[in-house]
Amino acid sequence: MWKKLRRSRSAMIGICCALVGAAAVPIVSFATVSGPVGDGPMVMQSGSTSVTYQPATNVASLPATSFKQIWTRVGDVVHMTGVIPVQAAAANTDTQIYIPLPPEVDTAFPTHFDCEGTAVATPPNDSMADVQAAVTTGHTHQCLAYYRASTTALVYVFYDMSYRIQS
Q1: Contact at 8 Å (CB) between 143 and 112?
Q2: CA torsion sign, 71 to 159 to 141 to 35?
Q3: Residue 26's closest CA among 43, 12, 13, 45?
Q4: Residue 82: its pLDDT value, please?
Q5: How confident is the model over 94-118, as pLDDT tens digits?
Q6: Best-predicted range by mean pLDDT (79-83, 120-124, 148-152)
Q7: Bridge partners (DSSP) listed for residue 98
Q8: How many CB atoms lie under 10 A from the CB of residue 4?
Q9: DSSP class of residue 89?
Q10: Rounded to an integer, what distance in angstroms lies between the CA atom of residue 76 and that of residue 38?
Q11: DSSP one-letter code for 35
């Protein structure tokens, strides 16, 4: 049966719809979004930023590196990824590091839930981490990565997080 079908849009739609049991609806093209949408104008940006992380709790050292924080913005939602080199002051202790926001997509966070994400510390740790908005005085434009340090050796904490720009 598959060999008899030609590569065409109608054949592919027929196969896809038959597999899911839906009626065949032709797809004309993908939608392009521009102009005002939702809470404001549709903005699409991306970039990378050199980052200076700040210690919060149980941090002996945050060695300087050439790692960059990578970010994308679609509308008022920003997605960021990055790497934090960190040496904990004590093993088997909760460790926290402040993650600054890129200046191009900076915002203040009223609650901890306004920035959310995950992180993982590299071996020998392999510990999962949580990322949330920092709301302490002087750090309301930053997020906070939490992880449990199992060693005082240098580890790399890889994070992935998203937040909405507050108006």
Answers
A1: no
A2: positive
A3: 13
A4: 95
A5: 999 999 999 999 999 999 999 999 9
A6: 79-83
A7: 54, 144
A8: 6
A9: S
A10: 10
A11: S
Q: Tens digits of per-residue pLDDT, 31-87?
A: 344 445 455 667 899 999 998 899 999 999 999 877 899 999 999 999 999 999 999
Q: Pull the structure tokens for residue 140.
A: 């309301």
Which helix (H) or strand (E) segment holds residue 9: the answer is: helix 9-20
Which residues are CB-contacts of 45 (< 8 A; sequence separation ≥ 6)?
A: 72, 73, 104, 105
**pLDDT class for 127, splitting at 50, 70, 90?**
confident
- Three-class SS state of 151: coil
Contact between 117 and 147 under an 8 Å Cβ cutoff? The reply is no
Which residues have C-beta within 8 Å of that of residue 69, sequence separation ≥ 6? 48, 49, 50, 51, 80, 81, 82, 99, 102
Percentage of the chain with pLDDT > 90? 54
Task: Give the length of the chain.
Answer: 167
DSSP states of 108-148: --SSGGGEEEEEEETTTT--EEEEEE--STT-TTEEEEEEE
In the numeric block, which tokens belong to residue 85?
């080199």
What CA–CA distances, in Å, run from 165 to 10, 48, 73, 143? 42, 17, 9, 13
